[in-house]
């Protein structure tokens, strides 16, 4: 059992998968505050919930008095991390990288609170040092310490070599640059711990080894498990796309609803990882059965939304859900919306076409099947006739509410 409070809680909540030397790390953590980092490459202009394990791990570190460092990959984004990818990432132009960097910095700031004092937390950008490197300097200073044989043994590299599209020399350098980042943060801030998902284990170990060889110091690596749902789905992805942390890319209500739809078997695990409720309370809620487990899901959804979007947004999303699903009210705000031309109604339009135009169904045939199967509703009333003609008489003020099943809803404004 670890002695340091950070490792104790990290293990109890399920954050710890691998550690390079857990006893030595525990001893260092117990002596006083350290700084630790996790890297985030700007592959999009927002992070999604697949990054929340890492963000919550940094938040937990900060809670226990240590300094979190969020390292933005403005430099490594110019290469792209090949870890466990089936093919190479498309290279981004600098303008896109800069735009993405701003977006993910905003995502990080939603969950981790950085103050004016560097001890409270740091957001750094590895472009600040990687863009200054010369190739010869990197080869002589860092490359000499890397064994190609060992790099080829990493699972992340080997899986790519076994696929139809091989690993480019450009991508092969990613591990070297990530190791360089660790050493640079060690030199600048005394950083002694790199954390990340389990797919980063090989890169993290390489950085630990580089610092041992060049600085004669012991530093550490810790990985968290890569999460999938109980049904095997990748965390953060749904049939409709990524569950973004940015409210500009995903309405807060949709974010809340994603967590409300958590599978029963995942409730306890997700409460421990993605909320700050006491572990005993997480376990109590996870043990609920039948209809009561839905109350635990609502608590999960509200608590995660509170962390990402604030108290007011979380309470508003919960209220919208209650009014929509439990009280049967047709509320105007909080649900996803789309806009259509009112002339469509003036001429009369089949209801199945509305499902297609609103994006609720991919085709006329799919919309017709939904209606025939009894899963379609208009203004909370079951649609019996797939050919029903919708006119302005069906409007509630200037909008209609379409529902596909119990969980997918859309306000269509005209």
Q: Can you describe this structure?
A:
The protein has 414 residues and is of the alpha/beta class. It folds into three domains: 5-224, HUPs (Rossmann fold, 3-Layer(aba) Sandwich), CATH 3.40.50.620; 251-326, Orthogonal Bundle (Tyrosyl-Transfer RNA Synthetase); 337-413, RNA-binding S4 domain (Structural Genomics Hypothetical 15.5 Kd Protein In mrcA-pckA Intergenic Region, Chain A), CATH 3.10.290. 45% of the residues lie in helices and 14% in strands. The chain is built from 19 helices and 15 strands. It has a six-stranded mixed β-sheet with strand order 1-6-5-2-3-4, with helices on both faces. The chain starts with a helix and ends with a strand.
In short:
By secondary structure, the protein is α/β, with parallel strands linked by helices. The protein is built from 19 helices and 15 strands.
Our count of helices gives 19
Mean pLDDT: 86
Shape call: globular
From the alpha carbons, calculate the radius of gyration and give it in angstroms. Answer: 25 Å
**Major sheet summary line:** 6 strands, mixed
Distance between the termini: 61 Å
CATH superfamily grouping of the largest domain = HUPs
- The computed structural class is alpha/beta
Give the total of domains.
Answer: 3
Tally of DSSP β-strands: 15
CATH class label of the largest domain: Alpha Beta
């Amino acid at each position: 059992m670890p002695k340091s409070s950070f490792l104790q809680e990290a293990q109890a909540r399920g954050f710890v998968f691998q550690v390079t030397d857990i006893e030595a790390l525990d001893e260092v953590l117990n002596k006083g505050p350290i700084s630790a980092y996790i890297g985030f490459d700007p592959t999009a202009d927002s992070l999604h919930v697949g990054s929340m394990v890492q963000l919550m791990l940094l938040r937990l570190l900060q809670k226990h008095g240590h300094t979190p460092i969020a390292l933005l990959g403005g430099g490594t984004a110019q290469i792209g991390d090949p870890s466990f990818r089936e093919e190479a990432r498309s290279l981004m132009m600098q303008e896109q990288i800069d735009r993405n960097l701003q977006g993910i910095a905003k995502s990080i700031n939603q969950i981790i609170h950085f103050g004016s004092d560097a001890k409270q937390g740091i957001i750094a950008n590895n472009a600040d040092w990687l863009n200054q490197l010369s190739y010869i300097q990197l080869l002589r200073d860092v490359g000499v310490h890397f064994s190609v044989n060992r790099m080829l043994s990493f699972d992340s590299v080997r899986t790519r070599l076994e696929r139809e599209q091989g690993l480019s020399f450009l991508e092969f350098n990613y591990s070297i640059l990530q190791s360089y980042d660790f050493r640079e943060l060690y030199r600048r801030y005394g950083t002694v711990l790199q954390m990340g998902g389990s797919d980063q284990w090989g890169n993290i170990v390489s950085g630990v080894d580089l610092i041992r060889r060049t600085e004669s110091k012991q530093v550490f690596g810790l990985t968290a498990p890569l999460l999938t749902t109980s049904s095997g789905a990748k965390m953060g992805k749904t049939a409709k796309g990524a569950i973004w942390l940015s409210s500009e890319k995903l309405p807060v209500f949709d974010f809340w609803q994603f967590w409300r739809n958590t599978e029963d078997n995942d409730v306890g695990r997700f409460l421990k990882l993605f909320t700050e409720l006491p572990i005993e309370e997480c376990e109590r809620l996870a043990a609920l059965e039948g209809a009561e487990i839905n109350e635990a899901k609502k608590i999960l959804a509200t608590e995660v939304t509170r962390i990402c979007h604030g108290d007011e947004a979380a309470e508003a999303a919960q209220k919208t859900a209650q009014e929509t699903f439990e009280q049967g009210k047709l509320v105007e705000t909080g649900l996803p919306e789309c806009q259509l031309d009112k002339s469509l109604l003036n001429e009369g339009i089949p209801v199945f076409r509305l499902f297609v135009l609103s994006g609720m169904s991919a085709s006329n045939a799919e919309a017709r099947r939904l209606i025939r199967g009894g899963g379609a509703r208009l203004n909370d009333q079951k649609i019996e006739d797939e050919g029903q003609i919708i006119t302005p008489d069906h409007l509630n003020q200037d909008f209609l509410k379409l529902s596909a099943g119990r969980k997918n809803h859309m306000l269509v404004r005209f």
